[in-house]
Write a structure and sequence with these properties.
This protein has 311 residues and is of the alpha/beta class. The protein contains 10 helices and 14 strands. The longest helix is centred in the last third of the chain and has 15 residues. One of its GO terms (molecular function) is 1-phosphofructokinase activity.
Length: 311
């Protein structure tokens, strides 16, 4: 398993009860964790049956946070170091009010030639790895079709490719027919260029995307669960109620659950249960920490599955 992170981030989470803009606020605790969608997926899947490799770009000036995560989780580090710092995302969490305020700082500008070198590195990793996750936004200096290019080259080598991004990078990527995509409802609406005012419209849109040749389409609906569309049919998976410490990384946990289930040969219902349980279990934790297996099994039993017909 290889995760490709082109715009890695450090998530700086501040626990600030009663946060009020324009006022003096008191932070009671803080955490700094290596993040970005692909880094989170690598962290969630580390320690599993298959080894995990992380590649992509890291800023040399603050790479230590990522290196510490890789050492702790046993993730093979094949990331390229670039001059400067990886971006920092500040999350101000008011648990009492149930609100999270995001302050996203600018990140790296990728120099000329670096993306070509990374593409060669990723293709080389396909010699020994059969599954790739391309996830997250794109930094300055990387073309909008970067994920599409990587998808086409990796699929030509017989690899399974999962993509989790949004906007123009997603639009280009779906044209290259990855095996699995996971937009949320807003991202799917943006992709198709029309509003999706209710669940029926979201399901119709997910079916359309699947019909273009993408084997598995998962549309996350936040607390309302997720829609899973594959050859086996269309399912709605609704999670049980859980305590929420942080929503950061819940979508990445869902991607991880999908891949863990699919690579184990699970059917669509088991995949939907495991992915939804992974995401629900992560909500109780800050940072890319997967829930323990016994908690995943407990949550899987609490996931409600509704059949919505054929694909």
């Amino acid at each position: 398993m290889v995760t490709v992170s082109l715009n890695s981030a450090i998530d700086h989470t501040l626990d600030c009860p009663g946060f009020t803009a324009g006022a003096v606020n008191r932070v009671v605790s803080e955490t700094r964790t290596a993040g970005g969608k692909a880094i989170n997926v690598a962290a969630f899947l580390s320690g599993g049956a298959s080894p995990v490799t992380a590649t992509g770009f890291l800023g040399r000036d603050n790479a230590q946070v990522f290196e510490a995560l890789f050492r702790e989780r046993g993730i093979q580090d094949r990331c390229m170091r670039l001059p400067g710092s990886s971006r920092v995302n500040i999350k101000v969490v008011d648990r009492a009010g149930g609100a999270v305020t995001d302050l996203n700082l600018p990140g790296l500008r990728v120099p000329d030639g670096a993306m070509e070198l990374l593409t060669e590195k990723v293709e080389g990793l396909a010699d020994d790895n059969g599954c790739f996750v391309l996830a997250g936004s794109l930094p300055a200096g990387v073309p909008e079709d970067a994920y599409a290019t990587l998808t086409a080259r990796l699929r030509a080598r017989g690899a399974l490719v999962a993509v989790d991004t949004s906007g123009a990078p997603l639009r280009h990527a779906v044209a290259a027919r990855p095996d699995f995509v996971k937009p949320n409802a807003h991202e799917l609406s943006e992709l198709l260029g029309r509003p999706l005012p209710d669940r029926a419209e979201v399901v119709r849109a997910a079916r359309e995307l699947h019909a273009t040749g993408i084997a598995l389409v998962v549309v996350s609906l936040g607390a309302d669960g997720a829609i899973f569309v594959a050859r086996e049919g269309v399912l709605l998976a609704v999670p049980p109620r859980v305590e929420v410490a942080s929503t950061v990384g819940a979508g990445d946990a869902m991607v991880s659950g999908v891949l863990a289930a699919r690579l184990a040969g699970s059917d669509l219902e088991t995949c939907a249960r495991r992915a939804t349980a992974f995401a629900a279990g992560k909500l109780a934790r800050v940072g890319p920490v997967a829930p323990p297996p016994e908690r995943v099994e407990e949550l899987m039993r609490g996931v409600a599955i509704h059949s919505l017909g054929s694909a």
